[in-house]
Amino acid sequence: MMTKTAATSVANWCPTPMNLTCTRDDVATMFVLSGQVTSQEIDPLKDPLMDAAGPDVYRRPVLLDLAKVSYIDSSAVSWFLVRNKLCREQGGKLILIGVTPMVRQILAVLKLDRILKLVETPAQARDLLTATSPGGAV
Length: 138
Known about the structure:
138 residues; alpha/beta; Transcription Regulator spoIIAA; 40% helix; globular
């Protein structure tokens, strides 16, 4: 039992690279991120969202599901803010979904929970989009 506990502890400290999957429907483009979102995973010269969904990705709602993100660093915070700015400039909207308590605490300490839209579930994100769309209620 001690060996299993030690192996689990070591596994928790080993870096897990960021993975990203993309799905797109009539309402939004959803990206599911997992692993660690850090400077080692983010190339400032590339845009993985644009690579996955095309050049018009920021013209529509972008949903980032962070439920499986284990860790973020300052590069990730900057990356979220830049994605938010790109969405605003191009007519889209960024919504972060399923933010883990650790990530939520980092965003709250930086007061970014006031700038970035955070929701618990994809359904809540879609409800928010429906409520704020031109044809929806305000």
